[in-house]
Design a protein that fits this description.
five-stranded mixed sheet, 12% helix, 32% strand, elongated
Length: 188
């Protein structure tokens, strides 16, 4: 005997390689489960491709994963979904909607949504969506107390972090300038 498990409603055709000519069709009826997102592993950062691990229940091989309405490539990691979000899909800073939808027929509505916070990229202290020498200059100006003028300023869009904390160590110090210099030079 052969045991096969189907996790998605649908029509499946089988062929028996041991006994040529033995084939058939299996119709799996019922309803696909409704997905339920219980957690997302991390927030996303503008400028960088972000990988999110989506935990929950009811995920199936036919699930559709979307980020603000755009379909994402994903794969299973155990019972979790791992989705790659290209940097081009990330808003600068703010929130985005992650949605998992199962194909019909489903138990109830067939989808679940989760709001994901998108932070400024590590090192982007002037919020111009680039990590460069201007970020280092903005931190130096901030450390020196210069908070006006046309030169780059440290932006304060995420009050939970010190605004010039490029290396995310909880402090705005000269190490943030060094971090930006290394980042811009490609030394991570």
């Amino acid at each position: 005997p052969v045991a096969v498990t189907f996790d998605t409603v649908g029509v499946y055709t089988y062929h028996n390689e041991l006994f040529p000519g033995v084939a058939g069709t299996v119709v799996v009826t019922g309803a696909n489960p409704d997905p339920d997102i219980t957690a997302v592993s991390d927030t996303a950062y503008a400028l960088n491709d972000s990988e999110l691990v989506i935990s929950g229940t009811g995920f199936i091989s036919g699930s559709l994963v979307e980020w603000n309405g755009t379909e994402l490539d994903w794969e299973f990691a155990g019972s979790d979904i791992v989705a790659e979000i290209p940097a081009g899909l990330l808003p600068a800073i703010g929130t985005a909607t992650l949605r998992v939808t199962n194909p019909a027929p489903v138990d109830l509505d067939g989808f679940d949504e989760f709001e994901v916070t998108v932070h400024r990229a590590i090192g982007d202290v002037d919020c111009d969506f680039d990590v460069d020498a201007l970020d280092a200059l903005a931190v130096l100006r901030s450390l020196a107390g210069f908070t006006t003028g046309v030169l780059p300023q440290v932006c304060d869009v995420e009050p939970a972090d010190p605004p010039g904390d490029a290396d995310r160590d909880g402090e705005e110090t000269i190490s943030d300038v060094q971090f930006i210099r290394a980042w811009a030079a490609g030394i991570e």
